[in-house]
């Protein structure tokens, strides 16, 4: 596999494009919005500049990486003659199903279709295509260029050959792939989201404040950041969406989202991306400082 298409130029999409392009793959970055593509490429360039300044890569490496990416606003044009498509659109099941129906029509029969979903069933997504054996999950962690883990999720009909190929491909990116089966939340979020939700419940019940909860988890459990800070970084809307998927999938009340989380999302307090969540990121320099901390 050498020719890769990435659907979505947001945080995960531009990070996935970055990882593939930096590893020498030809990448087509696709988004319906030219503005989103410009923003995504600007973010990618800024991340590369940071790597150059740290001596992680050279200026030539940066130029080669950017040169390996072509942007498209038309999905049909963008997926011509690609070996793999990685979908990284918004975590919305209806949107993903539509995208995969389109990809199944536009892509060659040999093309493998992957989704970066953090919780939605791979089997459900594959079912809308005529290539269920070639549909797989590639759940990258944020920030993609830095984080080593990729959850490789097999749908019910994903073939052994495709799984083996995607595991090997992930290793070529310098990642550590871990194969898991297709159940709500997979492994990462099945464990992480209940912890975050319980931290929000602890705040909601008045047991302790935001700083105190995060400090206990950082110093007492050796977590690099507290669960409330991490929720802000992930996006509270994303956390809520994942909890809904797990609650619906397992029908277990332990996955029901805390009312405080629901209300914060309704109020538009989504974390870093909105400027306010459990912490205040309203000052641009403060937000940049926090973001830098996460990418060290």
Automatic annotation (TrEMBL):
All residue ranges annotated as the 3-hydroxyacyl-CoA dehydrogenase C-terminal domain in the record: 185-281
Entry keyword annotation includes Repeat: no
Residue ranges occupied by any 3-hydroxyacyl-CoA dehydrogenase NAD binding domain in the UniProt entry: 3-182
Enzyme Commission number(s) of this protein: 1.1.1.157
Keywords, ordered alphabetically: NAD, Oxidoreductase
GO biological process: fatty acid metabolic process
The organism's place on the tree of life at top rank: Bacteria
Protein name as annotated: 3-hydroxybutyryl-CoA dehydrogenase
Organism: Flavobacterium rivuli WB 3.3-2 = DSM 21788
